[in-house]
Amino acid sequence: MIRPALPEDLDAICEVHARARATYYAGHLPAEAYSGPAELERQRAGTEQAIRSGEYTVLCAVRDERVVGFAVLGARFEGDKLFHFHIDPAVWRTGTGTALHRACVAVWQDAKLTTARLYVFAPNARARAFYARQGWEEDGREEDHVTMRLRVPEA
Fold first, then answer.
1. I want to staple 82 with a disulfide (CB 3.0 to 4.6 A). Which of 8, 19, 48, 118 is the partner?
2. Percentage of the chain modeled with pLDDT above 70
3. Sign of dihedral through CA atoms 76, 63, 97, 90?
4. Tens digits of per-residue pLDDT, 27-52?
């Protein structure tokens, strides 16, 4: 099930975020950069603000009453971004990511956006392949990230 995130989902979202990031940053960045206390608190504060502010859309993928994925996206401006899209590695390749991505596209369609953008960690080939299967195209590189663009299909 895909639904809007609630403030009480914050702990579960942070846990998914930490597990997902550990899979693709390990071996590429120092652990402190993605799982150190300061970084975890920064991520928590940002996610909490996104949920509470209403500036962004925050969606949760829920399976067996447990948050197993989440997305934070902008849907106010043309070319707005998919800021976070993380699925618990325990449920990769189960359709959870595809369902969550479809919900993101529906949000952009409702907002009448025609394009969306994202940044993905360049060494994360698995994520880049997932996004390509969903219709995203590489649009450039910035340091260690690949920029991608999605032409949002009409509803």
1. 118
2. 100
3. positive
4. 888 888 878 888 889 889 999 999 99
How many folded domains does the chain comprise?
Answer: 1
DSSP the chain: -EEE--GGGHHHHHHHHHHHHHHHHTTTS-HHHHHSHHHHHHHHHHHHHHHHHSSSEEEEEEETTEEEEEEEE--SSTT-BEEEEEE-GGGTTTTHHHHHHHHHHHHHHHTT-SEEEEEEETT-HHHHHHHHHTT-EEEEEETTEEEEEEEPPP-
Residue whose tokens read 């829920």: 62
User: Which residues constitute the domain of residue 50?
Assistant: 2-151
Q: Is 11 exposed, middle or buried (0-12, 13-18, 19+ CB in 10 A)?
A: exposed
Question: Which CATH number covers residue 44?
Answer: 3.40.630.30
CB 14 within 8 A of CB 43: yes
Cα 98 to Cα 70: distance, rounded to the nearest angstrom: 12
Look up residue 85 and give its amino acid: F
